[in-house]
Amino acid sequence: MVDVILGLQWGDEGKGKIVDYFAPRYDIIARFQGGPNAGHTLYVNDQKIVLHQIPSGIFHENTINLIGNGVVLDPVTLKKECESVKSFGIDFRRNLYIAQRTHIILPTHRALDKASEISKGNEKIGSTLKGIGPSYMDKTGRNGLRVGDLMDKNFTTQYIRLRLKHQKLLDGLHFQEDVSAWEEEFFEALDFMRQFKIVAGEYFINEKIGQGKKVLAEGAQGSMLDVDFGTFPFVTSSNTISAGVCTGLGVAPQQIRDVIGVTKAYCTRVGSGPFPTELNDETGDRLRKAGSEFGATTGRPRRCGWIDLVALRYACMINGVSNLVMTKADVLDDFEKLEVCGKYRIDGKETSEIPFQMLQHVIEPVLTPFKGWRSDITGVSSYGGLPAAMKAYTSFIDSSQTVKDSYSSNGPGRNQVTENL
Ligand code: IMO
Ligand code: MG
Questions:
Q1: 417 within 8 A of 386, measured Cβ to Cβ
Q2: Which of 10, 20, 37 to mutate to test the pocket of ligand 1 (most atoms within 8 A of CB)?
């Protein structure tokens, strides 16, 4: 049996904390897509840690963590992250596994990402520049190197061949930086990676499922950044939606049970692209400040706005969300007035659907006002203790979806979660 946790917006919904919260109920936590563009923030013993590549179950001693084949893996980031996890007393060698079909991000992939963004000028995606797009291009273009290739004696030859190809592309884009400076730590990190448990992920996971073990698939990014269904071309390069679990881990669709969708109580986006409920005003600044909305991976200020139910309904439909989790509700504690977007108005007509090309239209959000609760909810431990105004806000959002249960998170800590009744 496999349950999934994934983001329903443009990433940064608080997935890491929610995975950490649910982790004790599962035997295996598996990442199925994305790479170090993800930044999953957890608090362990009140200390903050940001994970980019390692699944968020790493702090639970008896949990197996698997980096699935659908991920693109940067050895340098992985090595650094393992070292920081070790400083928390975690022996990552014991419970971290890597699928051999996982593609490796090369230093030249990072360079190509940068060169491609520069060449786009004002139309740039706002990529995290971690080499995600170029390494997925090499995967679908049938050129990439995989973790299992590390054991091949011809690895270096294969590497050099690909690197030369990349160099030609970089020259064509007039990219000047010397990439060879990055290669030393890359090769060191490859040696480090050879010590891991590198497994045939698809057999590994299906064998565990056969033994009755419970798997939680951890998504990165969000549904609106999905390469097929997101706000293309302002998206990432993988399938962030629940369908990505099957290809990213090698499990059959019948194995998937619950899809736990995570949304913030408001909305943020980092990087370029459409964002209909964005607030370019004092309220937006207030949300950014109250929610510490600065990128966990790049440190960039996040764009902020009200929650968007058109996008949320769309994401719930595509993912088949069965459980809805609303995070960072406490960020709204001091707001006198809140607003929720239920529809878009485009060329004078109201619609509940995401248009094909959002940037070609002026999209006006149709907003419903709500009273703020004006109280501190961070210490509330049960649904009954939540203020009435917050219950009204949450039930409006829940009732716009067809989910079987829902939760709210009211602070960064592991236990600050209430189940809504
Ligand atoms: P988590 O897992 C928020 C955004 C980038 C950019 C676009 C493409 O922490 O939610 P890429 O690096 O993939 O080429 O960037 O996607 N993006 C994210 N935004 N959270 C993330 O991950 C993101 N990963 C990528 O800002 O707009
Ligand atoms: Mg993040």
A1: no
A2: 37
The answer for 46, left when phi > 0, alpha when psi is -120 to 50, beta otherwise, is left
Look up the CATH number of the domain holding residue 185. Answer: 1.10.300.10
Co-location of 275 and 357 in the same domain = yes
The response to whether residue 231 sits with its C-beta less than 6 Å from ligand 1 reads no
Q: Which helix (H) or strand (E) holds 309?
A: helix 309-319
Active site residue 138: no
Q: Are 42 and 109 members of one domain?
A: no
Provide the 10 A C-beta neighbour count for residue 113.
22
How far does residue 146's CA lie from ligand 1's centre (Å)?
22
Q: Report in angstroms the alpha-carbon separations of 19 from 163, 215, 217.
A: 37, 12, 9
* pTM, two decimal places: 0.97
Query: If phi over 0 gives left and psi between -120 and 50 gives alpha, with beta otherwise, what is residue 185?
Result: alpha
Q: Assess whether the C-beta atom of 39 lies below 6 angstroms from ligand 1.
A: yes
End position of a domain, from candidates 192, 220, 250: 192
- Tens digits of per-residue pLDDT, 139-179? 999 999 999 999 999 999 999 999 999 999 999 999 999 98
